[in-house]
Design a protein that fits this description.
Layout: H1 9-16, H2 21-28, H3 44-55, E1 57-61, E2 69-72, E3 81-82, E4 88-91, E5 102-105, E6 116-117, H4 129-138
Parallel strand pairs: 3-6
Antiparallel strand pairs: 1-2, 4-5
Helix pairs in contact: 1-3
């Protein structure tokens, strides 16, 4: 199950209640950056919203506006670390079933190697380090 953009704290709680207990536990286990920004995440709704925005990725084109991507939380993809030289990408195209993300290796990955994706939008991946870091701090 995916939670989509426009996620307010109340909406996060409502959608969270629809998840299976395993998916709820998986979401609660995700990192959130609320404390980095001084956000009080003592209420469950704020905590869930913080976990969403700390782990969400660009999703498939929006049903309401195909020029825009939805933002989604995929519990498995949220576990991948980021790299400016990733060895895998996630995509919504190809053989993935509707509503499922597909992770594709972009290079050979040996057993035991960490699988990394890039959290940045494609158009920023080749920018200088300082610009990528600035974008990360702004978002």
């Amino acid at each position: 199950r995916q939670l989509t953009s426009g996620l307010s704290a109340d909406f996060a709680s409502s959608e969270f209640s629809k998840l299976s207990s395993a998916d709820q536990a998986g979401m609660l286990d995700l990192y959130d950056c609320a404390s980095l920004f001084g956000v009080d995440a003592s209420s469950q709704s704020v905590l869930l919203s913080a976990k969403f925005w700390s782990n969400a990725v660009p999703g498939p084109p929006s049903a309401s506006d195909p020029r825009e991507d939805d933002t989604v939380l995929c519990l498995t993809v949220a576990r991948f670390n980021s790299s400016c030289k990733p060895n895998a990408i996630y995509t919504w195209h190809g053989s993935a079933k509707a509503g499922e993300v597909c992770v594709v290796a972009t290079t050979d990955i040996s057993p035991g190697d960490e699988i990394c994706v890039c959290y940045l939008p494609t158009d920023l991946m080749c920018d200088p380090v300082e610009e990528r870091q600035a974008w990360t701090k702004e978002t």
